[in-house]
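Entry: DUF4190 domain-containing protein
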Amino acid sequence: MSHYDSSSVATPRSGTNGLAIASLVCGIVGLIFFSVILGPIAIVLGALGLRQVAAKGGSGIAKAGLVLGIIDVILFVVLMAVAASSGGFSWYVGG
């Protein structure tokens, strides 16, 4: 019969900051969908993740999320400027 080690030692957790990961995910998804919403969220979460980086680690991920959030906002502004200069855009539904 085998016995399992029943010591109460905590298992090591990942050293990556959760806010940094959330910022990166929001930045990546914001490139495709809802860039006007997810871009600023990625910027805020990336900035908060950079502040916490000393305690939890993950500065590269936080910086990447921050940069992707900025790219999301810039992409949204450029697309809106192009749409406005070409007479706007309309939806065609139906047959």
